């Protein structure tokens, strides 16, 4: 009893109570706040829940029924899952996409242009001459080249840019029309243009002439002179009577 009356003990007890008062006040405030929250929560929970046809109350009229056990049970009860509606899958009909077939690119076949077999046009170039064009560049017979272009061996000049005809490989000289000697009187002179590969002997025989007269009229050296294609000769015709060539006879040897 003396201890409680001790001033020191009284001061300590006062200080201890003073420190506990705030905790008690705050604890009571927390309990009141929690109770208010619970009341509000259960108030809305009860209002959202379906109400029974007749509410059981302690009096004659209806009203709010406060059930602490139910409230605590609702507080700690697990929430009832809301059924989720499963969407019905609509079957998708695939749309057929047309497949584009690639078009094949046709590579053109290179066709070789054949060398023309017939006559062709050639444009004379710088440095060309008749002999080089015919025998070296195109390798065609000289007499055919001259005849198809109207040239002669004595008159065949070409110039750059001039168009001339190149005969085909199978070209042939036209067959000369045979001269009818019967229309000429003996010793009548005619002009004859020497053809390629002509000889004086062939000319004498063809025109029934003589070597002496032809050599004399044309101022030739002798009968063995070489003739040039395109050369023009004076030929006296029908100086001699042609002698028929004898037909050889065959003697049959009797068999033994």
Question: Please, could you describe this protein's structure?
Answer:
By secondary structure, the protein is mainly alpha-helical. Among the domains are: 1-46; 120-166, LysM domain (Membrane-bound Lytic Murein Transglycosylase D, Chain A), CATH 3.10.350.10; 181-236, Membrane-bound Lytic Murein Transglycosylase D, Chain A, CATH 3.10.350. 6% of the residues are buried. It has helices at 7-48, 68-76, 130-137, 142-149, 200-206, 211-217, and strands at 120-123, 163-166, 189-193, 232-236.
Short structural description:
By secondary structure, this protein is mostly helical. It has helices spanning 7-48, 68-76, 130-137, 142-149, 200-206, 211-217, and strands at 120-123, 163-166, 189-193, 232-236. The protein has a two-stranded antiparallel sheet.
Q: What are the main properties of this structure?
A:
6 helices, Membrane-bound Lytic Murein Transglycosylase D, Chain A, 256 residues, two-stranded antiparallel sheet, mainly alpha, rod-shaped, single chain
How are the SSEs placed, and which strands pair?
Elements: H1 7-48, H2 68-76, E1 120-123, H3 130-137, H4 142-149, E2 163-166, E3 189-193, H5 200-206, H6 211-217, E4 232-236
Antiparallel strand pairs: 1-2, 3-4
């Amino acid at each position: 009893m003396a201890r409680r009356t001790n001033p020191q003990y009284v001061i300590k007890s006062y200080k201890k109570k003073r420190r506990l008062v705030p905790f008690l006040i705050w604890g009571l405030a927390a309990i009141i706040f929690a109770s208010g929250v619970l009341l509000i929560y259960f108030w809305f929970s009860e209002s959202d829940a379906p109400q029974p046809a007749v509410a059981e109350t302690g009096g004659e009229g209806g009203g709010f029924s406060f059930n602490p056990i139910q409230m605590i049970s609702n507080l700690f009860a697990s929430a009832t899952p809301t059924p989720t509606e499963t969407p019905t899958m609509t079957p998708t009909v695939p749309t057929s996409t047309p497949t584009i077939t690639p078009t094949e690119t046709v590579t053109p076949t290179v066709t070789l242009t054949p060398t023309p077999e017939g006559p062709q046009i050639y444009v004379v170039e710088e440095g060309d001459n008749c002999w080089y064009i015919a025998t070296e560049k195109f390798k065609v017979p000289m007499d055919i080249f001259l005849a198809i272009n109207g040239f002669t061996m004595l008159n065949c000049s070409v110039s750059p840019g001039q168009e001339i005809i190149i005969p085909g490989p199978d070209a042939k000289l036209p067959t000369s029309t045979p001269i009818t000697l019967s229309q000429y009187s003996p010793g009548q002179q005619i002009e004859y243009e020497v053809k390629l590969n002509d000889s004086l002997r062939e000319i004498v025989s063809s025109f029934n002439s003589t070597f002496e007269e032809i050599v004399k009229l044309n101022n030739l050296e002798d009968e063995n002179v070489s003739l040039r294609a395109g050369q023009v000769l004076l030929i006296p015709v029908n100086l001699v009577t042609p002698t028929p060539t004898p037909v050889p006879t065959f003697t049959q040897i009797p068999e033994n």
